[in-house]
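Structure in, sequence out. Go:
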């Protein structure tokens, strides 16, 4: 069945088109949110690369991998112009998405960052932490499905040999996140806007820690990016979001 476009009104100051994609028996549509933007680019890697660039590169591979596995997905914010996180879950719903996956790369609290020189410039890094993290919000109205998918993605990442990081559970200011599923690297982060505002199951993935010098190099390897994308797609498949 062909998708149809209907106009639903002015939100906010722009006319948004609603894609009526939710046909009975259709493959669920997955919204892949590219974390941050060109203007507000997130954390900075150990070699000075903005997080947004890592997020955009990985999101594209995740999108292609989902489609290769027979799923359906589209990206939000890949052009770097989406500056308001409030609009991202809205955009996902407008397109009829059934799942919201936000792609990010991680850093650590400022007190752990140290100076070093890279290609003649001073940069900040920490080699203390490494690994992926997953977040869900208890304010999301589909918490059970969010947790089920986050756990499935975490399990697939670990099976692919990628470790989970525990540093967000440290009892310090800025961290102290409660575990939702420690075995699979899933934390609660109740007030994350993209998670709590989504009307569909929503998970945020920190794919790895780019402030770590070795992990940054690791995450830039196409084979590693592919392994992460395959694990994400496998997890989504295992929680029923790919068929
Ligand atoms: Zn981020």
């Amino acid at each position: 069945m062909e998708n149809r476009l209907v106009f639903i009104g002015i939100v906010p100051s722009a006319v948004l088109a609603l894609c009526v994609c939710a046909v009975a028996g259709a493959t669920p549509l997955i919204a892949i949110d590219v974390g941050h933007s060109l203007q507000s680019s997130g954390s900075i890697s150990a070699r000075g690369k903005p997080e947004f660039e890592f997020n955009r590169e990985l999101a594209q591979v995740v999108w292609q991998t989902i489609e290769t596995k027979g799923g359906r997905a589209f990206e939000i914010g890949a052009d770097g112009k989406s500056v308001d996180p409030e609009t991202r879950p809205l955009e996902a719903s407008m397109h009829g998405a059934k799942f919201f996956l936000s792609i990010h790369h991680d850093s650590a609290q400022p007190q752990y960052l140290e100076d070093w020189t890279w290609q003649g410039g001073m940069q900040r890094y920490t080699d203390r932490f490494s690994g992926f993290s997953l977040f869900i919000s208890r304010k999301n109205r589909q918490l059970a499905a969010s947790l089920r998918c986050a756990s499935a993605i975490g399990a697939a990442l670990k099976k692919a040999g990628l470790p989970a990081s525990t540093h967000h559970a440290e009892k310090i200011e800025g961290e102290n996140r409660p575990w939702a599923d420690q075995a699979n690297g899933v934390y609660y982060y109740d007030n994350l806007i993209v998670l709590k505002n989504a009307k569909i199951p929503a998970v945020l993935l920190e794919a790895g820690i780019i402030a770590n010098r070795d992990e940054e190099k690791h995450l830039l390897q196409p084979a590693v990016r592919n392994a992460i994308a395959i694990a994400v797609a496998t997890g989504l498949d295992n929680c029923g979001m790919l068929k």
